[in-house]
């Protein structure tokens, strides 16, 4: 079955067209198919008639001079969709530079006229507005990038539209960074790419610099786009089953920006029309992709389909860290459980998450009070601390009998500077069918999840027989609440991912590797957790997994390729509070402050005691 966003048979969209009454005055902005021939400066030549050596295609926005400073800042704050080449102030540009000989083959409009935020007409010339233009500023936005060259480079057909107009562009629910009256959604363009060509295509487009980097790969509904067959501008591109939608920012964002400011009079290039300019692009020339800019693409979700990106050097560091934490100090055979890139994909998913729920607690020392071991809580606190530093809401869910213990640990972590602020401590006692979904989602609505990523670090996991076992096959079910039900529920709620961190196979989330646990871990046929997480991070000590997740989030959010992808190429490239990230990373000194509450058990293992 095709995804819903493929839609039905596409109906070609059209471009604005002005209609005129018998006196020739402009009446309305209707739609009509037009050719994709661009505008050029005088002397007017079409692209296929002249070699414009040294010139770049650009779209144009013409605004009153009073709006120029704000729009320039708006472009700078949203450089992905609005790559500003330069501007020309009143009296420094001439009218012919924005006019062109009308195309005799199509008679297509070259400019759109906006009045008080509404498109009121399409023009082939601005000559009749000479007087008004004397007090207006022209902005030139780079149109030099198109995915088509990259498609050809990797042996794919170009993304020709279903109709005969420009390739479609879509309004999203992603807001651009607002600036003094300019406030609009991001507009994107899309090309469908076969999965096996995806990474090569992305590397080819990124070779032209930041402007070639996609801002989203996967389900269009994650951008608020319901139907790819119905673009807001231009004509749709046909998607085939198995294609992955890849999105880039579109200069059509400028039309939404002009509309948002509701100025009395403004002009923009019509969709698919450009002028040629000698203004230079300040980015590195095509083909000069630095090692730090080489992207890797990794799928982080199947439902909804979602890929993420990071630079090759960042991925290499993460893989090295995954090898380090997989050292097996207890010689339990955990190497047989390892799955490559689980740490990478779990961390990429966490980096995209808006709100995270963390759980921990393994009451293996059931003859002592409290029965928890220390492996787990410090790692959970370390991850929570860095999630806080990134500005992500984080909560912790624990057994009801251990609430007082964990509240004390959180309070101490705040006092010692490990956590920035208190984090909510939650519990879940189970209940009738639907209780887990009701807990995870607002009003039980799966379209409104409270959390979009669950993480279990050294949390007792339910075995196939419904019991919970420590490594010695002792049943500890009476000490464990059914938090596993939440992880099971995420498998039926699109948009919520889960990660399990474990070092023995009996931890929550290790159901993903349960067959290997049964074969290679002592008592594995009994103790193996039957509940799987989307990502299973295998470590020699589970705390290491929590520390590693925090460190990888730092690596990813310090990676320019990943950060630009996260912010969809809109908003500032630097993040408030970024200078404090290193202070939020786990350290030996910090973790010692959380370990002073340990007691030694007769077996020589450590456990947590109340502070």
Fold blueprint:
Layout: E1 15-20, E2 26-32, E3 56-64, H1 68-77, E4 84-88, E5 111-115, E6 118-123, H2 130-133, E7 136-142, H3 147-153, E8 169-175, E9 185-194, H4 198-206, E10 216-218, E11 243-249, H5 253-261, E12 266-269, E13 275-277, E14 295-302, E15 305-311, H6 312-325, H7 342-352, E16 356-361, H8 377-389, E17 394-397, H9 403-415, E18 425-426, H10 435-440, E19 453-459, H11 484-490, E20 497-502, H12 514-520, H13 524-527, E21 535-538, H14 542-557, H15 560-566, H16 581-584, H17 588-595, E22 598-600, E23 606-608
Parallel strand pairs: 16-17, 16-19, 17-18, 19-20, 20-21
Antiparallel strand pairs: 1-2, 3-7, 3-12, 3-13, 4-7, 5-6, 5-12, 8-9, 9-11, 10-11, 10-15, 14-15, 22-23
Helix pairs in contact: 3-4, 6-14, 7-14, 8-14
Summarize this structure as a short list of keywords or feature phrases:
six-stranded antiparallel beta sheet; inorganic pyrophosphatase (n-terminal core); 24% helix; Putative_hydro-lyase; disordered C terminus; seven-stranded antiparallel beta sheet; 23 strands; 21% strand; 611 residues; 17 helices; alpha+beta; PSTPO5379-like fold
- Number of discrete domains: 2
User: Which fold does the CATH topology of the largest domain refer to?
Assistant: inorganic pyrophosphatase (n-terminal core)
How much of the sequence is in beta strands?
15-25%
List segments where confidence is low: pLDDT < 50 over at least 5 consecutive residues.
6-51, 99-108, 596-611
Write down the overall mean pLDDT: 84
- Count of DSSP strands: 23
Main beta sheet strand tally, sense and closure: 7 strands, antiparallel
Portion in helices: 10-25%
What shape does the CA trace take? elongated
How many alpha or pi helices? 17
Under CATH at level 1, the class of the largest domain stands as: Alpha Beta
Calculate the terminal CA-CA distance, rounded to whole Å: 56 Å
Radius of gyration (CA) equals 28 Å
Question: Structural class, from helix and strand content?
Answer: alpha+beta
CATH superfamily of the largest domain: TON_0340
Name given to the CATH architecture of the largest domain = Alpha-Beta Complex
């Amino acid at each position: 079955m095709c995804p819903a966003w493929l839609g039905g048979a596409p109906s070609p969209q059209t471009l604005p067209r002005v209609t005129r009454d018998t006196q020739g005055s402009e009446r309305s902005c209707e739609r009509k198919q037009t050719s994709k021939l661009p505008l050029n400066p005088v002397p007017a030549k079409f692209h296929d008639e002249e070699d414009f050596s040294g010139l770049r295609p650009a779209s144009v926005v013409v605004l009153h001079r009073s709006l120029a400073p704000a729009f320039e800042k708006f472009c700078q704050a949203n450089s992905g969709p609005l790559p500003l080449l330069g501007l020309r102030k009143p009296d420094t540009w001439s009218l012919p530079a924005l006019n062109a000989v009308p195309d005799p083959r199509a008679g297509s409009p070259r400019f759109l006229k906006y009045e008080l935020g509404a498109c009121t007409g399409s023009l082939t010339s601005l000559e009749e507005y000479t007087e008004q233009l004397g007090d207006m500023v022209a902005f030139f936005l780079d149109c030099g990038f198109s995915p088509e060259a990259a498609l050809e480079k990797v042996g794919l057909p170009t993304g020709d539209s279903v109709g005969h107009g420009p390739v479609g562009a879509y309004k999203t629910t992603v807001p651009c960074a607002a600036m003094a009256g300019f406030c609009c959604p991001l507009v994107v363009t899309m090309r469908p790419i076969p999965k096996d060509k995806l990474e090569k295509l992305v590397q080819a487009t990124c070779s032209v610099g930041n402007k070639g980097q996609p801002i989203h790969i996967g389900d269009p509904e994650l951008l608020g786009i319901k139907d790819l067959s119905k673009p807001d501008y231009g004509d749709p591109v046909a998607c085939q089953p198995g294609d992955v939608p890849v999105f880039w920012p579109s200069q059509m964002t400028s039309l939404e920006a002009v509309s948002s400011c509701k100025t009395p009079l403004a002009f923009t290039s019509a969709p698919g029309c450009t002028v040629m300019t000698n203004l230079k692009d300040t980015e590195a020339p095509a083909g000069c992709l630095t090692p730090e800019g080489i992207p890797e693409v990794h799928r982080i979700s199947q439902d909804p389909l979602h890929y993420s990106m990071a630079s090759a050097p960042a991925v290499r560091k993460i893989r090295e860290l995954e090898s380090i934490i997989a050292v097996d100090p207890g010689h339990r055979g955990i190497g047989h459980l390892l799955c490559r890139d689980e740490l990478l994909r779990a961390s990429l998913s966490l980096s995209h998450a808006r709100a995270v729920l963390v759980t921990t607690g393994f009451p293996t020392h059931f003859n002592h009070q409290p029965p928890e071991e220390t492996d787990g809580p410090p790692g959970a606190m370390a991850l929570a601390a860095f999630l806080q530093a990134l500005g992500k809401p984080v909560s912790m869910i624990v057994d009801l009998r251990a609430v007082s213990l964990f509240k004390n640990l959180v309070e101490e972590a705040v006092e010692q500077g490990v956590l920035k602020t208190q984090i909510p401590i939650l519990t879940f006692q189970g209940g009738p069918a639907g209780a887990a979904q009701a807990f995870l989602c607002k009003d039980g609505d799966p379209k409104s999840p409270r959390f979009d990523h669950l993480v279990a670090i050294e949390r007792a996991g339910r075995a196939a027989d419904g019991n919970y076992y420590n490594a010695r096959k002792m049943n500890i079910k009476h000490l464990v609440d059914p938090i596993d039900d939440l992880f099971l529920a995420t498998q039926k709620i699109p948009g919520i991912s889960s990660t399990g961190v474990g070092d023995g196979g009996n931890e929550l989330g290790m159901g993903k590797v349960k067959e290997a646990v049964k074969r290679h871990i002592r008592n594995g046929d009994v103790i193996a957790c039957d509940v799987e997480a989307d990502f299973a991070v295998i470590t020699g000590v589970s705390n290491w997994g929590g520390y590693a997740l925090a460190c990888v989030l730092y690596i990813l959010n310090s990676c320019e390729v990943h950060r630009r992808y996260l912010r969809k190429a809109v908003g500032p490239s630097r993040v408030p509070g970024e200078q404090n990230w290193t202070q939020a990373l786990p350290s030996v000194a910090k973790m010692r402050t959380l370990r002073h509450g340990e007691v030694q058990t007769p077996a020589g293992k450590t456990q947590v005691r109340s502070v």
